[in-house]
């Protein structure tokens, strides 16, 4: 490398997207990976018999406040829902329990009814596996919307917040 | 009420335990309801076929940091695990999904190997239903320890933290 290029490296580095956003950065209907999602709080959970998986549905502060206040139809702009998916397995120590096996994916819905007007008011994204490979199939968001259209009367969200004391 | 008693009311009120701690306050082997548990972060989840329930296992900051660092054998003192339990039902909108129905209970394990030396180094407690009625059967903690003895080689905790990116 020629010496005169070296001072440019730190500047260029600042412009790089952070880990996990390399190929699924905001562009058109795509969203960026919300960086803090592992610290979101729990809103719901599910088990799926069709693909043998367990899912935790977490929310950012805006989403959790809306869920606890019962104000989820519509969800407020700024709400982010994260669905963490694990393959399931039987517990060796407690055979009646089904527990997480390998991590599968994390999917997001980000509410912004202006920015994402073309996709039902939500931004949609999914990252697969521990490497968080973006699921960037063409038309991905429209595929999400098509499936979620069965719950358009509850603002396109399947998850109903779990009852809490 | 005699007038001279009135000024005492605010002082007395300060000494009252907060909601949910009335009859299960620390005394011997009992623990108090950790007030912030709904804001704990997710560590694991499970579905139980024996009682048709879904469970989210949450942790306080000490527990979550230990889980993410893989330092859970033993769990550090100060770790609190909260197990939120819902009865399960089939989703009407997505029949392959099992989702939470009514809230059942919340159970806790609080690690303090000195304070709770008599009960495997953990404080144990459970509160039932939306009213959070303390489950205060005599010998409750020893019953917990007896069941959890099958996992004493993993510090008496069934939950293994879910794999995360």
TrEMBL record, chains A, B:
It holds the Pfam family Cytochrome_P460. InterPro entries: Cytochrome_P460, Cytochrome_P460_sp. Residues 34-159 form the Cytochrome P460 domain. Signal peptide: none annotated. This is Cytochrome P460. It comes from Methylocystis iwaonis. The lineage of its organism: Bacteria, Pseudomonadati, Pseudomonadota, Alphaproteobacteria, Hyphomicrobiales.
């Amino acid at each position: 490398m020629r010496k005169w290029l070296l001072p440019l490296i730190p500047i260029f580095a600042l412009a790089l997207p952070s880990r996990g956003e390399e190929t699924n950065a905001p562009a058109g209907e795509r969203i960026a990976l919300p960086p803090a999602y592992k610290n979101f709080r729990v809103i719901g959970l599910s088990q799926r018999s069709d693909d043998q998986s367990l899912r935790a549905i977490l929310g950012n502060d805006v989403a959790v406040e809306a869920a606890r206040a019962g104000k989820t139809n519509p969800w407020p702009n700024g709400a982010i829902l994260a669905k963490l998916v694990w393959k399931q397995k039987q517990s060796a120590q407690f055979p009646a329990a089904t527990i997480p096996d390998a991590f599968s994916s994390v999917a997001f819905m980000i509410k912004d009814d202006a920015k994402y007007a073309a996709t039902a008011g939500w931004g949609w994204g999914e990252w697969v596996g521990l490497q968080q490979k973006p699921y960037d199939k063409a038309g991905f968001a429209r595929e999400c919307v098509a499936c979620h259209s069965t719950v358009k009367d509850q603002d396109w969200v399947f998850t109903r917040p779990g009852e809490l004391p």
